[in-house]
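Protein in question quoted in full.
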Amino acid sequence: MKAAPLRRRLLRRHALGRFSFSLFFLLGLIAAILAVGGCRKKSPAKSEIRTVTTEIVDAAQRVTGRRSEITIRPEMRQSASGQKSRLAADHIYISVRDASQAGALEQAFARIAQRHKLSVQRSNSSGLTRVDLFSNGTRTHTIHIITPLAARARPAQARPQVGGGAALAIVIDDLGHDRSAADALLALPFPITVSVLPHQQFSAEIAEEAYRRGDQVILHLPMEPQAEGEGSEGVLPEPIELRVGMSAGEVSSDLDGMLETVPHAVGVNNHQGSRATSDPTLMHELMPLLRERGLFFIDSRTTAQTVAYDTAKASGVRAASRKVFLDDTQTRQAVLAQLEVAARDVLRDGPAIAIGHPHPATISALSQGVPALENRGIRLVLASDLVH
């Protein structure tokens, strides 16, 4: 008779033990979750980022005697839910008239970083210094200190005087996705027309730096390639590009979206586009939009069937055509040979436009070849100087 009560007591103890273990396990799990959450790096608030931005701008104005052009471009990032974007970092562009001011600016920014417990990373090339600030490993600021070409000392060279028609514009395409390639290009000590792809990671950053340096910025406008030929040789269509069959409204909307990501663009040239530039309807939709926005057009001539240049002229758009491709073969000697072809064309026929890409071989060849062209009396000009 006593066995049943004893069994019930044992069962109750067993159940209580299981409950205690479950409760202990649950509390431990909650503690672990809270610990992990506490270890996560908290992203700086917008107010914290903007406080530092204000101090950076004030310091730059003091160092430069308020004679510096300063622009702030926010870098937005979508929230984890993907529903709204938040301020991730500020890009601050500072143009200095005196290259010696760059060092004083860096010292001022280091003091600001120390005051706010921010870590600093620095990189530089000719005329460009970049200072990144981090809070607990999260980048909050990228400061671009830019010395324009006109403010840099460049040894005077005696050049033979050749007729006014001996002018060459060099356009470098495909900027926007490779930061190191842009750095190498922007370090060149002569003006270049920089053609920037839209909607790339560094599109706005590179365009801003190029403009402040003294280069010219144009939009490298993605256009539809041929299904065969241009498109079948490893060249993929861009996610956003002008395509045959688009309405004028669609062309206008896409164009405006692209221009938003490439500040300071004063013209466009086509990226790919063998099919698009040979389609009269699409070109007749595009050219009035360029005229309304005050943009010129350079036909990259990716196909012999292009009607883009003629359509631009008929639509009242200032335009020109590419004469030489510099780097179909990506070796330094091949690019130097193409520069010589361009030089002969210029000396024989007058102004010309050459197009290349930011390949290491191309940049190396330009560094060597352009001063040699200038010594022969060929003026290096911007693309806008040759459109008509």
The radius of gyration is 29 Å. The first helix runs from residue 3 to 39. The mean pLDDT is 87.
